[in-house]
Inverse folding.
C-alpha cells in the first residue's frame, strides 16, 4: 500500500499507535533488567532509533496539516482581503481629493496600518502631524499646556 493514498488523519493515528507500541515495548525491555549496569542493548538502541524516526514523521504530518490549514485560510480570506484593500484605496483617494479641495497641504500619505509605531528606533524620530490651518501663524495653532488651558476662562 502506498502511504500517499492514506488520508492524513489515518496516517497520524498509525504513527501514534506505533509510538505507543514502542513505548510499551521499551518499558518491557527496561523492566527485565538483563545485561550489565549502564550498558544499552541493541534492542533498546533500535527502539529509540525507530521512535525518533516516527516522531520525525509525526512532526512532518503536523507541519503539513498546519501549512494546508494556512493555505485554506488564505484562499477563504482572499476575497475579504481584496475588498478591504479596495476600500482602503478608495479612502486614500477620498483623502487626497478632500485635501486638494480644502487647499490643505498634504503632510504625506497615511501610514499603512501597524507600520507607524512598530519599531522603537523610528519611534523617537516620528513627530505628531501638524493640526490646524496651514497658513495661520497665530498662537491658536500652537499647543498649550493642560494646566494653562485649565486656568484660562
Amino acid at each position: 500500500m502506498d502511504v500517499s493514498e492514506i488520508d492524513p488523519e489515518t496516517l497520524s493515528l498509525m504513527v501514534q499507535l506505533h509510538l505507543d507500541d514502542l513505548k510499551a515495548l521499551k518499558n518491557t525491555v527496561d523492566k527485565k533488567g538483563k545485561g550489565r549496569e549502564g550498558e544499552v542493548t541493541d534492542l533498546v538502541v533500535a527502539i529509540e532509533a525507530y521512535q525518533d524516526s516516527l516522531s520525525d514523521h509525526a512532526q512532518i504530518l503536523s507541519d503539513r496539516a498546519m501549512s494546508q490549514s494556512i493555505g485554506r485560510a488564505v484562499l477563504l480570506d482572499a476575497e475579504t482581503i481584496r475588498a478591504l484593500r479596495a476600500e482602503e484605496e478608495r479612502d486614500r483617494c477620498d483623502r487626497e481629493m478632500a485635501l486638494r479641495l480644502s487647499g490643505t497641504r498634504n503632510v504625506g500619505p497615511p501610514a499603512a496600518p501597524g507600520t507607524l509605531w512598530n519599531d522603537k528606533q523610528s519611534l523617537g524620530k516620528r513627530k505628531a502631524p501638524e493640526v490646524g490651518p496651514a497658513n495661520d501663524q497665530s498662537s491658536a495653532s500652537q499647543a498649550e499646556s493642560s494646566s494653562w488651558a485649565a486656568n484660562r476662562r
